[in-house]
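We now fix the convention by which a protein and its fold are recorded. The integers have meaning only within a learned vocabulary of local backbone shapes. The record below shows the convention in full.
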Amino acid sequence: MPLLVTPPDFPPARGYANGLVATGRTLFIAGQIAWDKDARIVSPDFATQFLQALDNVLAVVRAAGGGSEQIAKLLVFVTDLEAYRGATRTIGEGWRARMGGHYPAMSLVKVAGLLEPGALVEIEGVAMLAEAR
């Protein structure tokens, strides 16, 4: 389990960690969008796309032998900040269902567009997995 780092004079983090210290094997997760197994965007709905992209990140972590608690860093790209803000309640509920109370270090950046047509969200990450035995 990573050690959370928050400087004493920082305000409390909201939905992310300011920093974490972790050990183990490093897994770099490429940007994941809201694709299903047939490489189709699952929905035009922002929250649905966000949560599918997160599910895809988690699938990569699980395939490497880890779980949500091993995710150390996420970088989220969104095409519409207002859509993100409007979906935070649904995203928060879905986050807790998938991640529990684990909040990695995280950044969210608005971008003009993403490579795949119809993609509204892309999430990339870094996970720290247990040492191989």
